[in-house]
User: What shape does this take?
Amino acid sequence: ASHFLEVKNMRQYFPIRKGVFKRTVGHVRAVDDVSFFIDDQETLGLVGESGCGKTTLGRTVLHLLKPTEGKAFFMGQDVETMLSDNPRGIRQKMQIIFQDPYGSLNPRMTVNEIVGEAVRYYGLCSKRELDDYISEVLSKCGMLPEHRFRYPHEFSGGQRQRISIARALALKPKFVVCDEPVSALDVSIRSQILNLLNELKEQLKLTYLFISHDLAVVRHISDRVAVMYLGKIVEKAPKLEFFGNPLHPYSHALLSAIPVPDPKRQRQRIILEGDVPSPANPPSGCRFNPRCRYAMERCKKEEPPLVDVGNGHFVACFLHSK
Ligand code: SF4
Assistant: This one.
């Protein structure tokens, strides 16, 4: 049986152009041969440092950026084919919530116009029912019907993110890419927004790809976790398996940065040395080798494959494969 969403060997390479004639002199390999699946009503948390390609991957899965190679299948059907057959149909079912609720809402439109614009475009309800429909969606997202007549700048960051969520969910999607939806918000309101996303997921039977640089946030919201480093997935596992038995040295470093309530159980902080190498010129062999304290000779030459170590757990590291 096919998965709800399946991504196969996806690549997103951006050309680097130089000189007067803008000749292509190389490529930034932002997403480099990534495969994963998400089951119906599941949340996959995609985690990694900024610049690792996770945002590009989210956009490429939705085909907001055309993949250089590879395919995404939504409920068993090729997204590219669905887009050419019926672009509105598939665009409505796959939505995105952005990190920045300040930049993603048009400041000159009222909340009513912001939410209503897309609902009208997709013809999801009649003109007569539109106001009631918008009020209902807003209240699901914790806003009041009278907020409809106000402008984005009149709201706090948390409320603006609620409006962005309402705009996406008003379209009755089935799959939502949440791209760092709480990173721009105050710590005090992050859990409110995460809880809202969780409640809406239950209520509306949604499936999420949840992108974040913060493993604590990913732990709160995900069913499974995938760790990305320099354009590649280096580890993926069900949440409890991942947090109980992380295997990749990069995952260890990310995990050591999360504070835990009991200081005796705090892992020793692993400070990663060196900067993140450029995805235009990634290190040969294992891309993590210049920063890995376990790096062996072969790690500089060979690329470790992502191997199945049981319990739905996959890792790309020679410490865990032959
Ligand atoms: Fe470190 Fe080698 Fe494993 Fe890469 S393959 S993470 S360099 S031990």
Summary: The first strand starts at residue 5 and ends at 18. The longest helix spans residues 187-204. The mean pLDDT is 92.
